[in-house]
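Pair request: fold both.
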Amino acid sequence: MRNTWRSIGVVGVLLLGMVPVGTAQAADDPSVTPSSPATESPATETPPPSVGKTADPSVVTPPPAAESPSVTPTQPVTPSQPVTPAAAWSITLDQPAASWEDKPTVFTGKISQPITGSYITLWQRVPGAWVLRGSTRTTAGGVYKFSYTSAYTGSWAFRTMIGVKDTTALAISAYRTVPIQDRKIVINTPAAWYATLTGVSVTGRMTPAEPGKELALQDYLGSGKWRLLGIAKMDTKGNFRLRVPDDLPSTRTVRVLTRYVSQPAMEYSGLAKIVIKAALNPKVYAVSAAMVANTYRAGCPVKPASLRLLQLNYWGFDGKVHRGELVLRDAAVAKMITVWTATFNSKFPIRQMRRVDVFGGSDVKSMAADNTSAFNCRRVTGDPYSLSPHSYGWAIDINTVENPYLAANGVWYPSNGLSYRTRTPARPGMLFASSVATKSLVAQGYFWGAGWAKPDYQHFEPK
């Protein structure tokens, strides 16, 4: 009889050994699919059949017997693997590294038996329960590995077990506490306001730093709609700088967000208010000989040391603010800042404002380009016997195409401004006695060339 029980016991154990550890739930069984804390807990999981039992009532489970210490009804084995006492079953969980809310945390460990295919589950402790987070099977040597991305920040306890229920698991690991850190994009507090064309930017830092990762800047349009303003990459420390369009006065509500990630993993900064105001923003610099290489030569009445470079903003014909420059006599700078402050505030349009040196010192080319300029040591265009008032750095020409010039030789300059010889109808960029630029220059002691017998509608010079 004892031999009969022994035979049946061995058969039963061998049959059980053909079933992997925790085989009641396959890896793709929806009943053990990882879930959120609100929808799943250990109590909702379907437990596996008790190890040592069989669905076939004809198979009799042997009682514990001293004759067979290496075979117990609670120890699954396979014919090709050694049999070990049940008490030897255990599972380890290595300490994972700290992770981030949108990055996977890697869990590794090993079971005490070098069995391939044992069913391992991963659990996370949430208030009031342990929640299933994943399942896998051991590989060669009994090792296992999980990758789990937590949507929640904080320090969380995790553990693993052989099986799917703590009441039936062959072994449960010690728990490990893992810090799930909060990824953040922080925007530096902007200034109260910025002047146009001053390189307005949104700066800040992302933690953790991901050098080379692209971030996007958006502004809010209302009704839940956002518009892309710019893209930039963070540096090795996570710092970033994203340019804000500043060629128009505006008030924008902006935010910074990560790119090339799924919507749930997307990180957003807080909101920032960027106020840009239209302003002349004049800057004055010394002039070197190299800056006027084409407009100054030995014998000119004013040397470079007595000239100044005035950089300032102006309104363009496109309705946007642009940056311009004028080379002037040092004593004329204050007057010109006064004139152009009023002109800018009136939104009088200027085509362009560049040093005549950019045009090789040619007054004809500068006029044809509809350029507003001041200093140019040269003879009067159309009169080679007279020195131009521009040689002294006081005179200025404004919008040369819209305000053409009748030279002493009877030729109108520039040739592409002939349609503006007739001063009606009024068109953008044309100067009149009522124009803010005209009145401001006259108020500073300038004379307007429109009053000459041969009119020069573009030209102003001191009386």
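--- second member of the pair ---
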Amino acid sequence: MTDAVSALNRDIAKLAVGIPVHVWRAALAAAVFWLATAVVTIALPDVVPWGSGPLFAALTGGVAALLVILAFTVQRLGKAGERLIHYGPWFVALGVWLFLWELATAKFGWLPKPFFSPPHGLLNVYVSDGPRLLICILYSLRLWALGFFSGIAVGYVIGLALGWSPRFSYWGMPVLKLIGPVPASAWIPVTFYFFPTTFAASIFIVALSCGIPVAILTASGVGAINKAYYDVANTLGAKSWYQIRHIAIPGSLPHVFVGLFMGLYFSFAILVVAEMLGAKYGLGWYIQFQTAYSGYANVYATLIIMALLCAGLVKLLFIIRGRLLRWQAGFIT
């Protein structure tokens, strides 16, 4: 990855020969490709009509203009400017990707409809079906939140008990190891029998997918704590609940967050399956509905939304982890 970035920076330097040093050269190189994408979108006809071409050209052209402005002003933006400069090669790569994507799909038809969509085809999905997608996002977030938070709560309590109590671990860990490898979707027939509604069954499927990794990693974290801490606490007369609150829980947090990250990804992966159980709205339901009618542009647009939602939640989880584990700064990277 480092070699690829270095090579891209060398290519940018070649394109920017003769430009003053204080100018952000990567931004100018990126602006060329973003502007080329806008020109290609307007100047060349689509093989098949997709819609929203002028809007996409306006957006990419606007980004190109913004990059040109930033090329001469980024040094004045302080830390924000440094962060933008760090991602300069990515702006170039995205411009190149959009340019080639537009040519290969909409303009030359090398990647034909309906299996592939140009970028302005995805934009047209957001423009034409935006209200329904917004409703689906809200429905999916409701289902995901109920399943995820109930799953990690139960999983955390079970993991804490497994790591703390040898007797509970003796009976519980084999059961957890037996259930853990089974995909959450395999329990769908059981959920129809035990749960009164399909919505409750969907919540259970999501909760199961994230609860198991949290339970296993929490138990591992509690078990990995240095026994000397417990010996000191026992010597000072600390009761079991005090040791759990002040030793087991804080000491297991690094492992717990690993389980949370795993559970977050698993919960989003199972969300599509969970919303097949009689859901009337939701991103998973929308994907299934559009796939049945070969609306692959809508499918790709929805996958982008899910990826952005998941990435945003992962970023939020990183922020929470950084705050809670601030006392371990220097030990956790």
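Observation on the second member. The mean pLDDT is 87.
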